[in-house]
């Protein structure tokens, strides 16, 4: 399998509008979201049903993405809500839109684990 180009991202998941939030970081956003949505990672996101993408940022490097994740985790809840509402005022699940954009960019990209490497932070 060819090695996929890394696309560092920080993201916020939610269960329902103004509900529980989770801030995460990954090098393959689509694959990571698919894993969350399928409940394949036991823990906080699975326990609280956090599988709707409320917010994300693509970053230049994983170091930058990790630093931004730490920054967002230090945000107050109100500041996180304001950040989400600044780009997603209807609290849509952005995952389907992300899939649509990606599928236009590269054929076969609808397979969320295509190119997902074992060394990706899960």
TrEMBL record:
Keyword Cytoplasm in record = no
* Gene3D superfamilies membership: GIY-YIG endonuclease
Domain (GIY-YIG) ranges: 6-83
- Region labeled Disordered — which residues? 101-122
Keyword DNA-binding included in the entry's annotation = no
Q: Name one GO molecular function term.
A: endonuclease activity
CDD domains named in the record: GIY-YIG_unchar_3 (cd10448)
Q: Give the Pfam families listed for this entry.
A: GIY-YIG (PF01541)
State the UniProt keywords alphabetically. Answer: Endonuclease, Hydrolase, Nuclease
Of which family is this protein a member? Belongs to the UPF0213 family.
- Protein's name according to its UniProt entry: Endonuclease
